[in-house]
Amino acid sequence: MSTRAAAWVAWSLCGLTLVLVGFIVAFDVLRQEDVQGLFVLVAVVANALVGAVVASRRPRNPIGWFFVLSASSIAIAEATLRYAVYGLVIDPGSLPLAHAMVWPSSWLWVPGVALVLIFLPLYFPNGRLLSPRWRPVLWLALFVSVTLAVFWAFVPGATSGFRGVTNPLGIEALRPVAGALTDDVSGVLFLIAFLPSLVSLVVRFWRSRGEERQQMKWITFAAGVMFTMVVLVTLLDAAAASSALAKVADPLTSAVFASIPVAVGIAVLK
């Protein structure tokens, strides 16, 4: 892909993401929804903008594409969910294909999270694995990401917490598995895949010298903070934490998540 074509694709995805984020914000404001859910959009916008800049200038480096595709995936998932809720719950029958729009929202969050939390640490800063010996870690990341995406894409029953909004492609044979693979288990699987990726980042930082070490410094710190936040939020959710704690965890997690693309963008384009 030429640099011009890569720039066009990257900025088109960024533009789509920003339009969808605007739709999500307008929907939640008009519906007077809890603004806690909007904190994640700060990270989505940061991912989209930084990803488009990096991908358009360094199209052969996958890092920019990780960010912009992550942002697009989450924006599409959130926007289609709101479309489905309006067409199925708020004003039933008012929108075409409302039930079908439930499906993207049920699984697109998986690549949205995995691309930044799992794959980015493996490829930062030069777009290559640390060495061929780290390929099993890449395979583990791919296995966990694909398994969770496929599971959530076809799990039966409600997928969004709204009555009457169910997965249109849910497979009943997966219902017994759905009882075991809960949100908490999914979080644990993500941690199992994320921890080796974080170790790869730390090892790369330890071996780096000169300019590469300066590139690694901030992203290693941001990844460490992000790992701590993911563990804390997972433990809080598992322990049925109070709403007060949840209100603190959401904005903090989003702020840290938003800091990662900024740090990476500066390092890669340095």
Question: Which secondary structure elements does this structure contain, and how are they paired or packed?
Answer:
Blueprint: H1 3-30, H2 39-57, H3 62-90, H4 102-107, H5 109-123, H6 135-154, H7 175-180, H8 183-207, H9 210-238, H10 243-268
Description:
By secondary structure, the protein is mostly helical. It has a single domain (3-268), classed as Rhopdopsin 7-helix transmembrane proteins, CATH 1.20.1070. It has 10 helices and no strands.
Jot down its keywords.
Rhopdopsin 7-helix transmembrane proteins, 270 residues, 10 helices, mainly alpha
Low-confidence runs: none
Computed Rg: 19 Å
Q: CATH topology, anyone? A: Rhopdopsin 7-helix transmembrane proteins
Residues in helices, as a percent range:
over 70%
Concise synopsis of the structure shown:
This protein is mainly alpha-helical and 270 residues long. The protein is built from 10 helices and no strands.
